[in-house]
Structures are given as C-alpha cells and as structure tokens.
Structures
1.
Amino acid sequence: MSQRMTFFRKAMAAQRIKAVQELIAGLNADKERPILVGPWRSELGFEVSYWIPFVAFLRSKVKDFDARAHIVTRGGMGRLYSHLAAQGVDLYILRELAEIRRENLRSQVETGLLKQTQVTEWDERVLEDAADAMKVQRPFHVIHPAWMYWALAPFWSEDMGLNYLTSLTDYAPIPKPTLPETCPVPPKYVAVKFYSRHTFQYPHQEVGEWVQQTCATIAAQSPIVLLSSGCEYDDHADLQITGLNIASLPANILPEQNLYVQAAVLAHASAFVGTYGGVAQLALRMGVPGLSVYTQWSGTAHAHLSLSSYLSKLQNVPFAVGSLADSMFWRQVTSVPAEMVQTQVVVPEAVPV
C-alpha cells in the first residue's frame, strides 16, 4: 500500500477516488477477513475531523464492516468509534507512552509533519501485536491512516473543495460517550482547555492574563471543568488556570483512558471555551457549542477552519473562532454598561399607517 501511495503522490483527485473505490472492492471481495483500522497515533484534530469520517465512509461501503473491523487508537478514544466497530484495543496498552512519542518524533523528523503519511515498520509490528491481543485471525486487511492522508490531501492543499471531501467522508455527528462514574461533574458546566500550540503561543504574559480573566468571567456565571488532570499524556502543555468555581479532572486517570475521559466530560458540557484546535473540533463533532481562540494564524491550513464552519452551519452547532485581538474588539463593543445603553438609544418615531 505504501509503495502505491508513494507512486501516486502527485495523483489527480479522480485517481485517488478510484484507488479508494478499489480499496473498498478489495475489502468486499475478501469479506471473511477481519479488518484492522489503524494504528492511530497522530493529532486529535485530524482524528475527529477526517479519520473517523473517512472510516465512517468506508463502513457505509464495506459489507459487515462493524463486525469485521478492529479499531487501534489511543487514550481510550476507541469508544468514540462504537458506532463504527464493536471491538478494538488501545495503543497505550500495547506500547509505552514514551515509545509512541519517540515514534511520532522520528516520523516528524523524517517527513517534517506529525502525520502518518506512510506505513512504518513500527506500525506493522503494532498491528501484529494488536491482532494477537484481540485474537484476530490471519490474514487480515489493514486500513492505515496513510490511506486517509493520501486520499484527502487535495482538500487540505485547496486544490479541491468540500464536494470532494464529502465524497470520501461521512460527517454524521460522533455519539456522546458516557460519563465515567469516577469523574463527577456539576449538573451544568463549561468545559475549558487552553493549551500551547503553534496557533496559541505561550508562555506570554498578555495571553496568560487574558485566559485567567476570561475564565474568571465564565466562572462567575457557571462552574468550569478544566479538561486537564495534570498528567503529561497529551501532546500539548495545558495552561495553569486557578480560581473559584473551577475544577479539574481527577489526577489518577490512566493513559489508556485519558482522552476518553476528556471527550466524555466535553460531550456533556453546555459549551466549550479554549484554544483553537483539535479539542474545539471534537466539541463541534459531538454537537457542543464552542468558542476557541488563537494568537496567530500559522502552521495550520485554512481548509480545516472552512470545514468546521461548514459543519457548524450544517448541524446548527455554534462554532465561534477568533484571535485575541478579535475578542478584545468585541469586548469594547459589547461590554458597555446597560444604563449607558438605555440613555443613548434613540427610539424612532412611530410611522403612521
């Protein structure tokens, strides 16, 4: 598969669609074979915005997919695939967290991207161990993330638009996962996660002050649950936020449950506020209204924002995105005291009928 994708690296969009159709035909031709899906060890945003929709599209085309497919992802996120497949194993059970990070770093050094654009020997060994763990019979089919990255690349490069993307994906909302009993939350709360990434530079005094003030404003109106346990399982470092009416997740969450617990708490929040990125996109995919911010627009394709805007309108889920400068401008416009507004509003005279 990897050799073919390398050969077709500059393939036209129609060729990529044809190749995916041939993949589907092959999966249907050997309908008795199990299907291993993964291993996914890449970014959360790509997983929820493209990988899960791509797998959902294949499920709609492949006979008995949900019974044959075995999901290999990490952090307990396999439960978010329950509408696609009934079985799977967590990557954090098969491998130590440090080893996974080393493999991601190695891939990033080789390709310049934290993207699984090729099947590595490490991935192949993981799939063999996953098959053993789940007692999957050989031979088995493999749907590696490289298929998705290769097939959908024309959309990210903006050579093709949404019609192309949606011809290879299924954007039905991700079902809300059940809240674990070990993670009590208030009846109503706002989920918050501010973390440093290329679009949200930190440490920076102005950024830190803005985050603290914003969270204090929210906490004065509603409890906040921070999607952070203090454990270093995530790819990004969370900003430290403290204050009244602000709680964090339990500190003893296992690596193989970390992302699932965050997703479950996020799914049952009244809203999400935080950094623009994968968590904001996950909130949208689960139908949770979100407001996310960035400090600078760099290192990310505008196509991702275009997709989120499209899904927001399609599913009638608010998804507000802006820079810190945008937020400060809005504050100037909307934070005028009510008594001043009442004294300055000009009421037009009635128009005679």
2.
Amino acid sequence: MVPRNSQISRAWIFLFFFVSGATGLIYEVVWTRLLTQIMGNTHYSIATVLTAFMGGLALGSFFGGKIIDRAFNPLAAYAILEAGIGIYCLLIPSFIELAFPLFQWVYLNLGDSYNQTSLVRFLVCGVLLLIPATFMGATLPVLSKFVSSDENYIGKDVGTLYSVNTFGAVVGASTSAFVFMRLLGVQTTIGFAAAANIGIAVIIYLLFKPPLKEKLEYLTPVDKVPLLHKRELLILLSFAVAGLIALVYQMAWTRILSLLLGSSVYAFSLILTVFILGLALGTVVASRYLTGMSNLIKYYGLNQIIIGLSSLSIIPLF
C-alpha cells in the first residue's frame, strides 16, 4: 500500500494540481502576448507557444515517468517541480529582454530573409519556453504515482487527477486574458501565477515535510515493463496523429474567431477554454466507464470518427 499522510493530504494534492493547471494556462496565454512583440504576428506567437508548450509536456511526461520510478518521493519531486516552474516563469520576461540583442543582430544580418529570421525567433523563443513546459509535463506522472496505489484502478485514479488539472486549466485559460491581463497587466499576472506555483511548493514542505528519497511500494509490484507489440505501436502512432490534428483545429479555430472577436489573444483564450473544457469533460466521463469497456480499441476508433465528423459539421456554423 502506498503510504500517505492521510486522505486530507490526497485532497490537498487535487487542490494543488487544480491550481497548477490554472497557472499553466495563464502562462500559455501570457507568453502569447509577450512573444507578439518579438514574432510580429500573434498567430506566429501562438504557434510558437503551442509548439513549445506541447513539446515540453510530452518531454516532461516521458522523462518524469522514468525518473519518478526510481527512489524519489513523488510529493517532494512535485514540490521541486512547482518551485522550478514558478521561479523560471518569473524570469522569462527578463530572459526575453536579454535575447533582444540577438534578435536585433538577426534583423540586421538576416533581414532580407523572412524565413531565416522567423526560424531564429521561433527557435530562441521555443527553447526559452520549453524548459518550464517540461517541468509542467513531469508533474502528472509524478503525482500519478502518489495518488494511485492499485494497478486495477490506475485508469480511474489518473483520469481523476488529469481531469482536476484540466478543469484548473479551464479556469486559467478563461481568466488569463479576460480578467487578469486586463485588470493586472502582463507582468503582474506572471507574478501572480509564479507566486501560486512557489506557494504550492512551500506549503508541501511546511505541512507534509516529505523526504526527498523514499521509494513507494505498490500492492502489485511490476518488475519488468512488457514490450509493445506492432498493434500497440500502431495505436500509439495514431494517437500522435490525433494530437497533431487537434492542434491544427486549435490554430484554425483561433484564426477564425480572431476575425469575429477582433483580438487574437482573446480568441486564443476562448479557444483554449472550450478546448480544455472538452478534454476535462471527456476525461471525467471516460475514466468512470473505462473499466466496463470490453473493446477499448473499438471505442477509440469510434471516438476519432465522431471527432472528424463533428469538426466538419461546424464549418458552416462558422
């Protein structure tokens, strides 16, 4: 059995992950606004932020899962990640200012080549944002090991954890542009989100005092991870393609709504809100009925068909 301080600590974890999800999407919208002055076009800044954000989440999930399977305590590792996110994101505006001489050099020496200047700006800004996004991606596998103690209920436990984080992201996406940035400004909004991340880390160490090194043992230990077969690899590949298409939808819908709302930042915030709300609702429903589904591949295929048909059907509505 996974040792936990109490059920109250488990409730605290869900609260922390809700706040963490909100701050992540606040950063995403704020970064879009910051990069507009560098990229010169809001849609390019959105594409840069989405690429770095999603790439970081993928890297963080991959490496976070490998690292946490060692002797690290998940709660301590999560606190370190939250502190790292807050401190780094607080410094991002300064990092961007430090990069301005590089951008000036690019304009002076590569100004005749639009593609080259755009590529340099994309790479520099993408690398800056990739680091905190990787920390964010690592939080899910880290906390998944803390909340899930029975391999028979991993789908439900991780699904609940992910949905809580996603609902927090909905709050962050909806309030970032329409509330915080309008009332507080960009810099203060970044400071508010960073304070929340750092506050989570401080509360964890003050209340729970988790040791850095403590290997949690499961009810059913798994010594070896089975190799994936060709069928499973094909499903994972199709899942990657589905993720690519989802981001294409997000960019296209943002472009369309920016014509209606008059601002790409507001359109991006709105699309993120609806997009992530759908992810959260889908996760909640699917995790509840996951154990009762006999043919998961069939339901996955039907789900992809419904996504494609529904996306086609809303084009006349736009």
3.
Amino acid sequence: MKVLVLGSNGFVGTNLTRCLRSRGFETIDVDVSLPASICTDISSKESFFNDLREVEFNAVVHLAAITNIRETIENPYRCYNVNCVGTLNVLELASQRGVERFVYASSANVYGLPLEIPVKESTPFNPRIPYDYSKVIGEFLVQSYYRHKGLRATILRSWKLFGEHDSPQSAVSRFIRSCLRNEPIPLFNSGRDTTDLYHVENYCHAVELCLTRSEAVGEAFNVGTGNELSIRQVAEIIRNMTGSRSELQLLPPRSAMESEPMRSYPSIEKIERLLGYNPIVTLEEGLKKTIDFWTRSILR
C-alpha cells in the first residue's frame, strides 16, 4: 500500500512514516516545508492539487494541522483555513483518486471538558477553543465524504501522545529535560489535571489497523490506553525514573477557568473490539525510550 502522509514533518508524522515503512508500507511524505519529499500548502486548493497531480497513492493519513493552542486562539482564521479548508481539499483529492483508505487525525479535544468519564465515542462534543472547533468541523467533513462520496474513511480521536522527536515544549519533554538538569518542574493547578498518556508507537499501531482492517471504515475511535494519570503523577514518575533532584513546584491555576481540574480519559472498548487494538508499548517502556532520546539530545 502506498500511503500519502500529510503532516509528515511533525512529531506524529515523523514517527508514523518510520513505523509504516518498517511494516512494509511505502510512504509519500508531504508537509508545508522541508524535509518532506513534497512541500505544499493544503489550504491552497490550486497549488495542493497541482503539486500532487503526478503523484500516485492509494491511501491517505491526514495529520496536517495547526496544533499550537495559543496560535489557534490568537489567529483563528489561519486555524480554520488550514484545519478545515485544508481538510476539505485533502478529502476532495482523496475522493477524486478513489483511495482505498483515508485516516483523519482528530483529537480528544472535540470532547472539551468531557460530559462523562470515561469518554466514549458517543459522548457529546463539548469544544471550547478554536482548535477544538476546527477538529469538530473536520470530523463532519470526513463524515460527509464517507456518506455522500463513499470515501472509505476512519477518524481517530487521540489522547495525550508523547515520544521521541516530540516538541521540547510538550509537557513530557519539558519534565524530562528539567529532570535531566535537576531543574524545578512548575505544575500549574498543582498538576491536578488528568489525561491518558501514551507512547506514539501505540498510535502508529492504531493507524496501521485502520489502513488494513475493513471494520475501521466509516468509524470513529478513541485512541489511548484507557488509563487516567494526573499531570503531577506524570512528573513524579519521570523524576523517579531519571533519579532527579528536581523540585515539583505546586502552583495555582493560571486562570479562574482552570481552577476546576480537567479530567479526561477514554474508553477504548470500541477500538479493542472492532480492530483488535491493544497498546504495544507500556507507559514505562515509552518513557524510557523518550528519556534516552532526550539524554542523547542534551549530551550531543
């Protein structure tokens, strides 16, 4: 299978392209800038279609998006142009090419502050910020092309990913880098917010199942491990694994809106039942891989 991976330069894209190639897939790496093999802007239909005019592929994994939360709040127009108009352009191209599979990277953010715990695929959407809304819109566009164009599409709603090549500004990366330097770790709202933290290889495994299992077509799946961890617990685990002397700074919330802890973790019963998904990398194994990655980076 020849897979067009949009957003190939990002954290997930970097790991996914390597994973898919190791499993016998051929990938075509597409991003807005180098080192992708094809550089194009998905929000510009004319240039996007032109840049891919001669490219052959039979599956699409759409990861490309503006994901920086602050940026989406400060510039919602660009957020919606890339995340929504860009997704529409990708869907149209995939539909015209009659691809075998289309995988859309949505987010747990569509649920916002969840209306039930654990979060099921049937839990109502509760978006809060432009990024959340852009993913809700993207999902409806995908559903439309599935229903009205017969596009064999799947939606993945991911919880908190971490791993090698992640942004230095992500929580896990910051905690690891601070611990390796014995620097304080600031925890706003005392680190009481919770999530389902899991290694990126598990997400890559879920994508592979969506590309190969017919049961995935037309479905939306939560992706994670089904476990709940507080941000403080994550910091404590990393501190223990690194043998660090870093102090955990229990700080007040950054805003009144954050004073109530944000709890969010998924039920993964559906993806387990329909696709046979099981996490293949444990939290501890994933953190060790990531700690080793940042140790090499800092010593370099």
